[in-house]
Design brief:
alpha/beta; Ribulose 1,5 Bisphosphate Carboxylase/Oxygenase; Rossmann fold; four-stranded antiparallel sheet; three-stranded parallel sheet
């Protein structure tokens, strides 16, 4: 634990903060010289081992992510032209699949038309671990590629619960204003709450922590979140 981290930790009280207070504090204690990412860590009362308790979805952040995203689209024919005109960074089909299979991963988001999923599905070992496999539930398997690209450019983020029942979702950068971070955070939390599986019993939103890339985490009052969203 470095000196700067220790100094930041002394400013975090042993209590639960409201979301607005939490993002303001995280901005204050973020000490890195670069523009750190601000992230939410959300512990859910689900067991991802059961398919009916899987929590997965996406949300367009009101103020974007603050990150330039490289978009790859798997499409052919007219949809390939549409993707290019919509601003995709890379567009292709089997040629792109072969390139990825050889180790190329210089992209941040993947969109595919439904007819290309037979090709894309073979890349599961590469795309899956990076959370990049297109999925209809997140709007990345679609014939409306222009809309999908537009949503990603606006700040669309995807979330998927991990084995331990935790979600990690970016909500912006240190350079964002507290209001921007607050609104982005609430958009994510609202989307996660709406994605609650019907089979989830007990407390769904168990804990929420906000932190920057390098800073300590700040615990959030989950009770007030649930009341605000509901």
């Amino acid at each position: 634990m470095g000196k700067k981290f220790k100094a930041a930790l002394t400013k975090v009280e042993n209590k639960f903060y409201e979301v607005k207070e939490a993002v303001e504090l995280v901005k204050q204690i973020a000490f890195a010289k670069f523009d750190e990412s601000i992230d939410l860590a959300i512990k859910l009362g689900v067991d991802p081992k059961h398919s009916d308790q899987m929590v997965r979805g996406s949300v367009v952040l009101p103020h974007g992510t603050g990150k330039k995203v490289k978009i790859l689209v798997f499409a052919k024919g007219e949809k390939e032209r549409e993707a290019t005109e919509a601003g995709a960074d890379y567009v292709g089909a089997e040629d792109m699949a072969e390139k990825i299979s050889k180790g190329w991963t210089d992209f941040d988001s993947v969109v595919a038309t439904p007819d290309m999923m037979g090709t894309v599905g073979k890349l599961g070992r590469v795309l899956g671990p990076r959370g990049l496999m297109p999925n209809p539930k997140t709007g990345t398997v679609t014939f409306d590629v222009a809309r999908a690209i537009g949503d990603i450019r606006k700040g669309k983020v995807e979330f998927k619960v991990e084995k331990a029942g935790i979600l990690h979702v970016p909500v912006g950068k240190k350079s964002f204003t507290p209001d921007q971070l607050h609104e982005n955070s609430m958009a994510v939390l609202e989307s996660v709450i709406k994605a609650k599986p019907s089979t989830s019993k007990g407390t769904y939103l168990q804990s929420v922590t906000i932190s920057s890339t390098m800073s300590p985490g700040v615990a959030v009052n989950t009770g007030s979140i649930t009341k605000t969203v509901s």
